[in-house]
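Can't attach files on this board, so I'm pasting raw text. These are the components:
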Amino acid sequence: MKQKLQIEVCLTPAVFEKYQNPDSNVVVIDILRATSAICTAFMNGVDTLIPVRTLDEAKAMKEQGYLVAAERDGLVKDFADFGNSPFNFSKERVQGNTIVYSTTNGTNAIQMADTCNAVLIGSFLNLSALEQYLVKNNRDVVLLCAAWKDKFNLEDTVFAGALAARLLSHANFSTICDSTHASVDLWNIAKKDLVGYMEKSAQRERLRKNNLDDVIPYCHTLDLTDTIPFLKDGKLILLT
Amino acid sequence: MKQKLQIEVCLTPAVFEKYQNPDSNVVVIDILRATSAICTAFMNGVDTLIPVRTLDEAKAMKEQGYLVAAERDGLVKDFADFGNSPFNFSKERVQGNTIVYSTTNGTNAIQMADTCNAVLIGSFLNLSALEQYLVKNNRDVVLLCAAWKDKFNLEDTVFAGALAARLLSHANFSTICDSTHASVDLWNIAKKDLVGYMEKSAQRERLRKNNLDDVIPYCHTLDLTDTIPFLKDGKLILLT
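---
Top answer:
Structure tokens for the assembled complex are below.
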């Protein structure tokens, strides 16, 4: 009998080395807000996003003339053109452009995953597109939650559960991974009222304090786009 | 208004430094099987358990004449007097004795937690005793899951959820920690059929493969003892 493809959920980048596999496809997840913003930018026609880890790199590239999105702890940096809200990445501002991107948790996770077969960007906005691609591509899958400064977060985990549940509904996927089981169970609770469930998330509260929580319903909307951003030679482009 | 006491759940020792707090009480959790075994040993009258991280240390102390419990990946080491099954620690074998103890995940987590106010050993076997002590002792609480080689596991997390739910039922405790919310939600699913829920746990499967799964129902039994083992000067003794 052919061995089934395995799904694993890595709940924090701090333990990603335990899940790293050059044969796996990795989906990077930072629902509030980096990967929701990245999916929005590609939905609205951005050409390329260049993830960079440090603000120094982002600043240096701004000085070279790049458009730059840079955020730390939810707040846009003063030298940057964009913050981390998906609403920043409107068609008018991004179409055809290349944008340098640095966020608290998301860009770090993206670069970390670059040892695997393919790095895909995941959010509720492109859930079904991801499901279809991963089923067709027929490899083991690691769902990497960007988390919050290495601490577990609810919204990334619940999304990992949503995608894992979708994949497990296909006969060629299976899991023996406890964090995948837990994520699916949390998704099954949360899906009844996704935005309501996220009321208790720490990141939801952080955004509220900074009046940045207007994005919460948007970031929990399913299937707004069938675009999948993916990493090629250190840059995010559209998977075609 | 007085600030409420905070509960946090640390899902893997790999990120414990993010939760470390010299003012907190820490409960170390390794349900299958180290902390269930330790609680059993104290229930049956062991005098002192000396946790050591490495097998070399355990072996050296065996040569000095100590009784030694030593296990890796579920299997008892050949130089040791005991493995890691709670059923090893019967009254006849442990009463009044000092035993050196080294396991795959549990002893590492115990020593790591020793920077906090108090290190307590938790399992389903002493759940209510822990609840009562932590409420009375009136400090912030960190629930440290020993996990499996730094990977999340279900049984430790579900127990953390059980204890967190108990504490949160007391007005002086609160949480803003996503992993605590997730653990409580998982406990609320699992508690309807705790042993049945654990069927999908990876550690349950590992134990089954080695014919060591006779302990599963026992390790998920609530309140067999009101003893609480705690760490003093690097040794586990009974909290009185």
